[in-house]
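User: Can you predict the 3D structure for this chain?
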Amino acid sequence: MENKKMDQRVRLTRNLLKNALVQLMQEQHISKISIRALCEVADINRSTFYVHYTDQYDLLSKVEQEVLDNLNRYLSKQDLDENHPMSVQVLTRVLDYVKENVELFKALLSENCDFTFQKNLMELAQVISSQQNQSLDVKTQEYIKTFGFTGAISMLQKWLHNG
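Assistant: Here is the predicted structure, written as structure tokens:
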């Protein structure tokens, strides 16, 4: 029972810090967010922060990985309909997941975050890969894939911005 309470406290603390990060990233770049500001918003002590994370970048990295893991589980639980294009079904599921976590994605897809998360998100969803023309050379396929990734991210950002 004691261990379960400890796990609940750890989850609560990490959730408070994640929410604080999301809130602060709505206003400023990750590089401008201090540990002190995170702790004030989360209403925890700095020493508690350091028990869980080394710095704000570590917190962001863990939040990004959690989102990707959750999205991966969410996508893998879904059955795909063979009568509809897979890319459309996957994109729809990604949008459903984003809709359920709007504030988090607004922060992670804003200019206050880095492009690595955005690229990982699109690679996970593999929105475009099934649509590539195999008759094209590898370099051209990479350009098409990059174009598709950036277009999908831009569309997602606009969708989030417009509510």
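The helical segments are 2-25, 35-42, 46-52, 56-77, 86-100, 102-108, 115-125, 138-161. Residues 72 and 124 are 7 Å apart (CA to CA).
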